[in-house]
Amino acid sequence: MAESSKVIHVRNVGHEISENDLLQLFQPFGVITKLVMLRAKNQALLQMQDVSSAITALQFFTNVQPTIRGRNVYIQFSSHQELTTAEQNIHGREDEPNRILLVTVHHMLYPITVDVLHQVFSPYGFVEKIVTFQKSAGFQALIQYQAQPCAASARTSLQGRNIYDGGCQLDIQFSNLEELQVNYNNDRSRDYTNPNLPSEQKGRLPHPGYGDAGVAYPQMANTSAIAAAFGGGLPPGITGTNDRCTILVSNLNTDSVDEDKLFNLFSLYGNIVRIKLLRNKPDHALVQMGDGFQAELAVHFLKGAMLFGKRLEVNYSKHPNITPGTDSHDYVNSNLNRFNRNAAKNYRYCCSPTKMIHLSTLPQDVTEEEVVNHVQEHGAILNTKVFEMNGKKQALVQFENEEEAAEALVCKHATSLGGSIIRISFSQLQTI
What we know:
Layout: E1 7-11, H1 19-26, E2 32-38, E3 43-48, H2 51-63, E4 67-68, E5 71-72, E6 74-77, E7 88-89, E8 100-106, H3 114-121, E9 127-135, E10 138-145, H4 148-158, E11 162-164, E12 167-174, E13 189-191, H5 223-229, E14 246-250, H6 259-266, E15 272-277, E16 285-289, H7 292-302, E17 306-307, E18 310-311, E19 313-316, E20 329-330, H8 343-348, E21 356-360, H9 368-375, E22 381-389, E23 392-399, H10 402-412, E24 416-417, E25 420-421, E26 423-426
Helix pairs in contact: 6-10
Keywords: Repeat, RNA-binding
Pfam family, one: RRM_5
GO molecular function, one term: mRNA binding
């Protein structure tokens, strides 16, 4: 392999692959400073801001075959240590005003969506397009105005400001991109000049590994979502090479646990195919996840977790899958599986059980008292907060310990509160 360099050489770059496609593939790993398309050779040269970002990208793609628009591309370090000719600078210098802004959000206390950004930036002029992405430096967005003076005005007014009190601080500079390309209208990208774009690529998200062991990384439904979620790397302790989809859970409290409660807990880490409580060992259960990566997340984050007074033992099963039958519960088609939509966001929220739970899809008129009444049977509540995000009511509830929070989650996720089916996950916030 060539000596490490911040310049990455990409091969098999077909004519259908745009500069924006390459940017989206590599943005999770760090700031891209230059990009040169070698169209005659079907190649590209891409310069990261530093060598470590390039190393992270190449390490990630040793396990994951990078594909763009269905075409495999091949990457290696370039023999160049620096691109010195007159290539374009991607992320710009502040002294060159442009109608496209590069926005970095620091101290992200709450998730930021395209709708939130549009609300913040549209008072300064017509926003044509927004593209968001997650990288090791944090959450970033490119915002394209119809006219350059609007972008300049927004930058002057919003630089250094917080979107929410005490958090989500904006760091804004001009980008040197000439035009943003938006393929989908969803939470991550939006073209306000073309409302008819699809929300996702049709056929892009198969259910990987359902019913078979398979191989972990190549079958993963959405490798770019994983890269985006974890800033181009993987969480500490996660290898990404596991190919076993089925998990054996033991030391369960047989009086309190059923398949749906296990579903509510394990579905935080991936889609659930099937769950089976073992008749001959009542405190044991098998949980089949959507793929090996999701199974690895569940084993890593739930090993040793406390639930209903018992410390869970969570390991890979010798069984590659759970045979469908009357003694197993099937969840393949459940609309409660979280990873069919917003996969990157759900991967990003994966963590071990915490003392704090996050409740969403609440009724618009919900009160703090109603939220407390709904979950207080599960433990001592230290603090609660009901707030609005993108026009939707959400809440945080802090319990005395992780076990109480886990009990509230497994018992009350997907239950009805005021006529709404609520969603619950663990929050990584330390305090409210």
